[in-house]
Specification:
With 187 residues, this protein is of the alpha+beta class. The chain has one domain. It has 3 helices and 11 strands; from the N terminus they run H-E-E-E-E-E-E-E-E-E-H-E-E-H. Helix 2 packs antiparallel against helix 3. The termini are far apart.
Amino acid sequence: MRIGPPLFATVLLIAGLSACKSTGVRESLDKKTLASIITAEPTVVLYRDALSGGYGRDFVSAGPVEIVASTARGYYLWLSFWGTLPDGTYRRVDQPATATVLADGRQLALNRAAGASAIPPLSRPAYAAPIRGADSGYLVVDAATLTAMAGDDGFAIRVGEHTYTLWGDQHPALAAFRDFVREATSY
């Protein structure tokens, strides 16, 4: 079978479009508050070894969030803490009230979103928790913090004496995070 020029051009166009990557930046409208919620997917996953001599690990899934309401715009870092036990079962890890982001050679202290900086009461979380029962919440950030986190080396999160570092290949998640920052800081 011979492919004619119009069909060949169509096949080439489809192949080219399928090779294009989605930025991973998602926007949705919250039905309760009518605020725009902008996120990046997939989330970045960080870990720490939790049990000496075992295979238990604590994880934190992290994703940037921009909420644009009729009267305000705010940036947040969604964090969801969870863990595994040596037998492979999941367990809840409580989220701290504060955390320090290690990025771009800096230590950036963050606090849980509360009071005047609290996010509007959304009808659903900005991200789905990675496991049932994970402790998820939001820390207040600014555009400069998100920009530092989007640097070439990625980021780590310190909670108390424990530091969570990137788990495995996080290139797709970090690329989505960078796309989010690029779009969020461009206007």
